[in-house]
Design a protein that fits this description.
Blueprint (H helix, E strand, L loop, with lengths): L2 H9 L4 E3 L5 E4 L20 E6 L12 E6 L10 E3 L19 E3 L15 E9 L4 E10 L6 E5 L3 E8 L2 E5 L2 E5 L3 E5 L5 E5 L4 E8 L24 E3 L7 E10 L2 E9 L4 E6 L4 E4 L20 E6 L6 E8 L2 E3 L16 E9 L13 E4 L9 H9 L5 E3 L2 E8 L4 E2 L1 H4 L22
Bound molecules: fe (ii) ion (FE2).
The site of fe (ii) ion has 5 residues, from loops.
Length: 439
């Protein structure tokens, strides 16, 4: 069997544990999970007990995150890490370029050099905040044609929200296996080790690295107890372990740099675990889209899947927002997203199809950045079409777009600001809007 066939076989029929932020538990071998205590004098089956904390010990119960892992060797059994090349990965604070007030748009990343895996294929577009202060976020893209083999990655700087756009991924994490196809998102919590294997010949997509508070589901307010992303549709893995001796490179992203150590065993050796600091996948097509059934277009916050809160109520470090298939029925309403200027900064990407505010130029794998207070909205063609459209009920079903919306302006990396695939002349999409004022 080829590598891809083996990976596809491993990804078939995976079991999951459903729910968001709840206490999961799983054991790959019966009896591996201790009962009644987390750290017995001797853990079952000769395993080592280890706590992985995703929040301070003392954070309020609703925000407290930790998982207990029962593993073949403790994580502490490793040699020293040494610096390794950061490749095209960059980290906040972003100081390579002057923060640009202009509207920017990129075509998809060029194809990777043959032999590029997910980690080597990470390419940072920009971001904000300061990873060491655990505040802000980074926007990465990835493009890969090779599975990670004999190496494992973990990110001490933040959690990783992976948004595949082309090609499926099998994520082998410490807590078990997850499959993420285009249209799904996968989250790897801070510090959790994982390996990415490809389910197709190539893989491409987006990653939000969130240095701040972990993503949670937004409050629903008057919407009520259900709606938007429902907690039961988030799927954590079940325990699955590698009992593998031999050299494995472990790469740790720490305060912006990559550090590498060669272990004499696989660190994906967790036989049982319980807790709420877990990876998960979510199918964006499960999103319960809520919108107007009378007039006007609600603010796009109505499409929030996940939010990373800040210390200011309602002000997110970063929101993850999806523009999923939906009906538009507003009467006497300009139905595409309206013109606006926003104190928040918006990076948009496209997973498939088209986006209803942009007729051309915004393509799957590409992205746009509308920084704080930059004026944007429908392009001229979309504006003219929507202003003349007959307002019968209309299904938007040919696209899946998303937004990383963040509290601080995004500074581009030098490689993004100077990229060949940066579109020159993006401003032109708003030129030629006619002057129709008739006092
Ligand atoms: Fe916007």
């Amino acid at each position: 069997m080829s590598g891809i066939e083996q990976t596809r076989k491993a990804a078939e029929g995976l079991a999951h544990s459903a729910g968001f932020g709840n206490e999961h538990s799983s054991e790959a071998v019966p009896g591996a999970l201790p009962h009644g205590r987390n750290s017995p004098q001797r853990a079952p089956l000769g395993l080592y007990a280890e706590q992985l904390s995703g929040s301070a010990f003392t954070e309020p119960r609703a925000r407290n995150r930790r998982s207990w892992l029962y593993r073949i060797r403790p994580s502490a059994a490793h040699p020293a890490f040494t610096r390794t090349d950061n490749g095209t990965l960059r980290t906040a604070p972003f100081t390579e370029t002057v923060t640009d007030p202009n509207r920017l748009r990129w075509d998809p990343l060029p194809d990777p050099a043959p032999g590029t895996d997910f980690l080597a294929g990470l390419w940072t577009l920009g971001g904000n905040g300061d990873a060491a202060q655990r505040a802000g976020m980074a926007i990465h893209l990835y493009s890969a044609d090779t599975s990670m083999t004999d190496r494992v990655f973990s990110d001490s700087d933040g959690e990783l929200l992976i948004v595949p756009e082309r090609g499926g991924l099998l994520l082998r994490t410490e807590l078990g296996l997850l499959r993420a196809e285009p249209g799904h998102v996968a989250l790897i919590p801070r510090g959790v080790r994982f390996r990415v294997e490809l389910l197709d010949a190539t893989a491409r997509g987006y990653v939000c690295e969130n240095y701040g508070q972990p993503f949670v589901l937004p409050d629903l307010g008057p919407i009520g107890a259900n709606g938007l992303a429902n907690a039961r549709d988030f799927l954590a893995p079940v325990a699955a372990y590698e009992d593998r001796e031999g050299p494995v490179e472990v790469v740790n992203k720490f305060c912006g740099n990559l550090w590498s150590a060669t272990y004499d065993h696989s660190p994906l050796d967790v036989v049982a675990w319980h807790g709420n600091h877990t990876p998960y996948v979510y199918d964006l097509r499960r999103f319960n889209v809520i919108g107007s059934i009378s007039y006007d277009h609600p603010d796009p916050s109505i499409f929030t899947v996940l939010t990373s809160p800040s210390d200011t109520p309602g002000l997110a470090g970063v929101d993850f927002v999806v523009f999923a298939p939906r009906w538009l029925v507003g009467e006497d309403t300009f139905r595409p997203p309206y013109f606006h200027r926003n104190v928040m900064s918006e990076y948009m990407g496209l997973i498939e199809g088209a986006y209803d505010a942009k007729a051309t130029g915004f393509v799957p794998g590409g992205g746009s950045l509308h920084n704080m207070m930059s004026a944007h909205g429908p392009d001229r063609e979309t504006f003219e079409r929507a202003g003349a459209a007959e307002l019968k009920p209309q299904k938007i079903d040919d696209g899946l777009a998303f937004m990383f919306e963040t509290r601080w302006p995004v500074t581009a990396t030098a490689q993004a600001a100077g990229a060949d695939h940066l579109q020159r002349g993006y401003d032109a999409v708003w030129q030629g809007l006619s002057r129709d004022f008739r006092p």
